[in-house]
Amino acid sequence: xxxxxxxxxxxxxxxxxxxxxxxxxxxxxxxxxxxxxxxxxxxxxxxxxxxxxxxxxxxxxxxxxxxxxxxxxxxxxxxxxxxxxxxxxxxxxxxxxxxxxxxxxxxxxxxxxxxxxxxxxxxxxxxxxxxxxxxxxxxxxxxxxxxxxxxxxxxx
Length: 156
What we know:
Layout: H1 7-43, H2 45-50, H3 53-66, E1 70-73, E2 85-89, E3 92-99, H4 107-119, E4 124-129, H5 135-140, E5 146-150, H6 151-155
Parallel strand pairs: 3-4, 4-5
Antiparallel strand pairs: 1-2, 2-3
Helix pairs in contact: 1-3
């Protein structure tokens, strides 16, 4: 219990705690992503399909972390403006959109990510679609800094 004499001390700590909390959350999120990614590689595509969309985003974060990117989780709290993950490596910044859908991702989503990429000044985009992409999506990305990845590429 905090008495009146201790209250100013605890009030003084509040700003410090606000600065520390995001770092702890980032560290725990990174560890969770690496753990889920390792488990997914071991258990395969069926396990990946059984995950929640939030865990799917963590698996994607673990995958990109293993590829040498610094990963920032963006979309776990709800509406994310098209940004689930932000990747950084060698001075470049990349956007990742994760779609844990049973159906294939269409060209509309890919076009939207291309627009976000330009509006937010990213160097490129990764769209990770659990069940793959339509032919139109594959055709549309030709010559653009966009990489499409299906769920199988996360587990292979």
